[in-house]
């Protein structure tokens, strides 16, 4: 069939848009120009904004993609990717630019990508440490001062820690991300690094309460985190094989508990999980931190499927709204699955919404409006990631009619207090024997 002039121009525009992004390293100006160009060409389903500035005043750009890119919509979960928080770990920075390119050119053409963008709001930050990237003048596989921000701070040791007090001065880049996390309802996230090939999951720090004495720091959602890490590693070209880059260490199935690998204080993934109600894993994507640009195309091929499949996991589990007798949303209601309480309870957002990532199975979901009774509902959660929607389960408190009450979690080391209290009430053999005798008598 003949092609009209209008169609031909459209095809040419599409080709030029795709061809515009080369497999090379893009400096701050080029990165900004590319993001602005993408937003200009695809303004109906993208939104570009800066969440803050670096020490040297560079914008921390985030491109948002989805059917409603400018704002949160009830029922649509928020997902994010963050790369280049260590300025000399560069592969993730370029992968996210190519992911953007793939998503915008596939939307309304590829049915899977179309459904993914229609049902998910995806936030992509190609660089959290633009100053560090610009400062890395001599690429190195192992280390450069560009790892740190302009103030010489490691941004992945700069967040509040749930286990130990920190006197670290919160950096502008860190504060911007913390504000961003508080202002959105993020459900799932990953941060992209380099220097190894593994998917690492929370906790990065720990104590006896989380099992660190056994060399593993376990979160209440350990099963979900293992699933998330394996989702990435098995969809990656080779990560699942688990052989670490220089064979000093192997990672079975290409995953590791962060603490088991090495202890880390003030990490971003623990902060997301504890204070942001967002499950985040850390993806180490290249043995060499800053590999030659001619390898970037292969890195994209190795990671493309994994990057997409991981986003789909934001639709695991259960979601819903908590409302009062008049149908008004109840913010700050606590909604958690029985048997997996969070040290900082997961609460509904301003729309009364909750999102809980859970693997398929039967769960009791407990909704509590502080000062009122709890409500428990048993749910059978299917694997809904292929349907791009978590199971929906709402809660209505007919006897409740109240305005929003602010609820915040303290920034003090929460698990430190838990460890002290558990040690204080640790039963001695005598007390255990006494409890057993009393139980028998009562029976």
Q: What does this protein look like?
A:
By secondary structure, the protein is α/β, with parallel strands linked by helices. The protein has two domains: 28-315, Zn peptidases (Aminopeptidase); 318-423, Immunoglobulin-like, CATH 2.60.40.1120. The chain is built from twelve helices and 15 strands. The strands form three sheets. It has an eight-stranded mixed beta sheet with strand order 1-2-4-3-5-8-6-7, sandwiched between helices. Strands 9, 11, 14 and 15 form a four-stranded mixed beta sheet that branches. Helix 3 packs across helix 10 and helix 7 packs antiparallel against helix 10 (296-312). The longest helix has 17 residues, at 296-312. The radius of gyration is 23 Å and the shape is globular. It starts with a helix and ends with a helix. 45% of the residues are buried. Mean pLDDT is 90; it is low at 11-19 and 427-443.
Question: Can you summarize this structure?
Answer:
A hairpin with a 5-residue loop joins β12 (361-368) and β13 (374-381). The protein is 32% helix and 20% strand.
Oligomeric status of the shown chains?
Answer: single chain
Write the CATH architecture name of the largest domain. 3-Layer(aba) Sandwich
- H/E series: HHEEEHHEHHEEHEHHEHEEEEEEEHH
The secondary-structure class comes to: alpha/beta
Shape: globular
GO molecular function: metallocarboxypeptidase activity; zinc ion binding
InterPro entries: CarboxyPept-like_regulatory, CARBOXYPEPT_ZN_1, CPM_N, Peptidase_M14, Peptidase_M14_domain
Domain Peptidase M14: 24-314
Family: Belongs to the peptidase M14 family.
């Amino acid at each position: 069939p003949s092609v009209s002039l209008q169609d031909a121009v459209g095809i040419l525009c599409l080709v030029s848009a795709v061809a515009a992004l080369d497999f090379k390293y893009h400096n701050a100006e080029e990165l900004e120009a590319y993001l602005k160009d993408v937003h200009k060409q695809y303004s109906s389903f993208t939104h570009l904004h800066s969440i803050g500035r670096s020490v040297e005043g560079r914008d921390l750009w985030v491109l948002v993609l989805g059917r409603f890119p400018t704002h949160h919509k009830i029922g649509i979960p928020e997902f994010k990717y963050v790369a280049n928080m260590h300025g000399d770990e560069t592969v993730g920075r370029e992968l996210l630019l190519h992911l953007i390119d793939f998503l915008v050119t596939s939307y309304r053409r590829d049915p899977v990508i179309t459904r993914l963008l229609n049902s998910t709001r995806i936030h992509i930050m190609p660089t959290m440490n633009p100053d560090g990237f610009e400062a890395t003048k001599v690429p190195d596989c192992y280390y450069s001062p560009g790892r740190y921000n302009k103030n010489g701070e490691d941004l992945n040791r700069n967040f509040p820690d749930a286990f130990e007090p920190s006197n670290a001065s919160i950096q502008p880049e860190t504060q911007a991300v913390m504000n961003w996390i508080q202002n959105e309802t993020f459900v799932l996230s990953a941060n992209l690094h380099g220097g190894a090939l593994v998917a690492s999951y929370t906790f990065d720090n720990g104590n006896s309460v989380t099992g660190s004495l056994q060399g593993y720091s376990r979160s209440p959602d350990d099963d979900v985190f293992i699933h998330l890490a394996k989702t990435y590693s098995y969809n990656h070209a080779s990560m699942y094989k688990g052989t670490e880059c220089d064979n000093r260490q192997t990672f079975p199935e290409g995953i590791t508990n962060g603490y088991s690998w090495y202890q880390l204080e003030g990490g971003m993934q623990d902060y997301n999980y504890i204070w942001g109600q967002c499950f985040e894993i850390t993806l180490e994507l290249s043995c060499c931190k800053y590999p030659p640009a001619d390898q970037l195309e292969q890195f994209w091929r190795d990671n493309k499927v994994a990057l997409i499949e991981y986003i789909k996991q934001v639709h695991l589990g259960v979601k819903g709204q908590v409302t009062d007798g008049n149908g008004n949303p109840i913010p700050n209601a606590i909604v958690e699955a029985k048997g997996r309480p969070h040290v900082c309870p997961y609460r509904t957002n301003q729309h009364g919404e909750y999102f809980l990532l859970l693997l398929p199975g039967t769960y009791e979901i407990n909704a509590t409006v502080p000062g009122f009774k709890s409500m428990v509902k048993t749910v059978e959660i299917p694997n809904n990631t292929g349907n791009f929607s978590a199971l929906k389960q709402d809660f209505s408190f007919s006897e409740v009619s109240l305005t929003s009450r602010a609820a915040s979690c303290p920034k003090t080391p929460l698990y430190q207090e838990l460890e002290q209290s558990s040690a204080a009430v640790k039963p001695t053999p005598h007390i255990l024997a006494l409890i057993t005798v009393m139980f028998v008598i009562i029976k």
